[in-house]
Amino acid sequence: MSPIPSAALNQRILPAATPPELLRNFCIIAHIDHGKSTLADRMLQLTGVVDARQMRAQYLDRMDIERERGITIKSQAVRMPWELDGTPFALNMIDTPGHVDFTYEVSRSLAACEGAVLLVDAAQGIEAQTLANLYLAMENDLTIVPVLNKIDLPAAQPEKYAEELAKLVGCEPEEVLRVSGKTGAGVTELLDRIVATIPAPGGDPGAPARAMIFDSVYDTYRGVVTYVRVKDGSLSPREKIVMMSTRATHELLEIGVISPEPVPTQGLGVGEVGYLITGVKDVRQSRVGDTVTNAAKPASESLGAYQDPRPMVFSGLYPIDGSDYPVLRDALDRLKLNDAALNYEPETSVALGFGFRVGFLGLLHLEIVRERLEREFDLDLISTAPNVVYEVTLEDRSVVTVTNPSEFPGGKIMEVREPVVRATILCPSEFIGSVMELCQARRGDLLGMDYLSEDRVEMRYTLPLAEIVFDFFDQLKSKTRGYASLDYEPVGEQAADLVKVDILLQGEQVDAFSSIVHKEKAYAYGVMMAGKLKDLIPRQQFEVPIQAAVGARVIARETIRAIRKDVLAKCYGGDITRKRKLLEKQKEGKKRMKTIGRVDVPQEAFIAALSSDSAAPKDAKRK
Ligand SMILES: Nc1nc2c(ncn2[C@@H]2O[C@H](COP(=O)(O)OP(=O)(O)OP(=O)(O)O)[C@@H](O)[C@H]2O)c(=O)[nH]1
């Protein structure tokens, strides 16, 4: 019913582990902007963990970039005291990252909970990520607490959406709680409901320790801080632990809970959520999804399969000023300490000089990394158009994995495979036609369609990842006046009729512009790129052909006309043969210029040509 002063609770927590029956581990899942962070802030305040003086909006989003963009990138866990009927409980709220790029981390965070608060905006209703998150929570067997948020809004329709939500989770509309994260209305009842309905964590206190890592972050002063949820047994300071996927052994230097800042404890027992510090310096030694056990008495089986983060999208990153290359290399090394999913190798480009080919989980991940590099390391960067990973089978049956279009094999190709996703789109039924049109243009296959209510539909498509990572979400929004929401998950690869389009300047290939596209779209890409470069490259003393080619076949051509020096300017009057002679001479000169040297293209032209079409679906995120 009421908060316990946090100091008192901390004293109770500090010496020993809290008994599992007094613990509740939950997360809040919602569609983007349905108010997850605001509700979390209100809970922190109501439980007395953060007082009014310390309070700032989005308390749990600690990185600047998270706060500015209003998104959660890394998971967080906070312990809050709450008393129901005179019994003091400890609630662990695990905040999850929202974007589809980080789905693996979301599912690990969910696996650390027994229950989930499913939050839906009372003025918007169910959206694509509401469903995606609900399904993830159900896969993890979580108890769902359905909640309508923002009931203070004049546009709120709690009756209508309570019914929709009740139908979705299988309960009565009256059981759907109504809250406002903004005013705090209903939040006390929600905390009571969490304690009453979410089960206490199970686990065997006598078994060898097993704890799942659901996040790990790099701290400049303390090294890697690993967030874990203990399933069986217990962990205590100074003991030796083993990471089960790598078998690496570390000593536990510190162990504790977050409430809301780190508080060291004597240990973590069954069902508890907290942090470990081992002194390792690189998050890849302590990865999300791995299981921690005790070195002296190791568990025989880990908690679920561990997955290495797999980059889905690649892009070349180049410093605009070539002398910044060593700074970029050091900056990537530093970021890698905190980002297990970041992959990179050096590469060189004729157009852009020295840089790196970097693998990302998705476009948002790319944007965040790029922004952090620019901001935290003061670098000016250019990134090449992002591409997905292709698998090319050659006639001799060997398979080449292509992460850079300019490396696409030129020889005899049997098959090219590209990654595909299963996309879920929710929109008002009046936009069905426009959405279908868009998905068809993007090589989508309709899997199914369901009416959620009279006027809202859920459409399911398989789409090539390459077709949706770029501007699909923007297009979807503009075709549905902002009403559609999108979610997608990778479902494997499929063979497709793909070709590499090269761009040639005066017959010389410009690697940064090579792109792998569907055969039917090759022509459009070629025309677009050639046209763009024609506008961007300044006229030269000689004619510059810009060609788009598939293999040896030219599919589009533009010409940058030469600046024609008026050689006749000084030749007043005179006879025609003299003029002709001068013009002939000029032509000779131009021919020579064409054959010697390369076109003088300012780097800005490359940058402009590359940057305009790499817009990311910024808010295609899962909340
Ligand atoms: N009127 C009203 N507005 C709210 C309420 N809760 C959140 N908002 C507003 O809704 C917007 C989104 O809220 P956030 O808490 O950032 O939502 P979120 O996207 O789920 O959280 P993030 O993880 O930070 O992205 C903000 O402008 C909030 O001020 C509410 O109960 N009432």
Automatic annotation (TrEMBL):
GTP binds at residues 33-38, 149-152. One of its GO terms (cellular component) is plasma membrane. Keywords: Cell membrane, Elongation factor, GTP-binding, Hydrolase, Membrane, Nucleotide-binding, Protein biosynthesis. It is an enzyme of class 3 (hydrolase). It catalyses: GTP + H2O = GDP + phosphate + H(+). It comes from the Bacteria. Its main location: membrane. Its EC number is 3.6.5.n1. It holds the Pfam family EFG_C. It is a peripheral membrane protein. Residues 21-202 form the Tr-type G domain. Belongs to the TRAFAC class translation factor GTPase superfamily. Classic translation factor GTPase family. LepA subfamily. HAMAP family: LepA (MF_00071). Required for accurate and efficient protein synthesis under certain stress conditions. May act as a fidelity factor of the translation reaction, by catalyzing a one-codon backward translocation of tRNAs on improperly translocated ribosomes. Back-translocation proceeds from a post-translocation (POST) complex to a pre-translocation (PRE) complex, thus giving elongation factor G a second chance to translocate the tRNAs correctly. Binds to ribosomes in a GTP-dependent manner. This is Elongation factor 4. It comes from Cellulomonas aerilata.
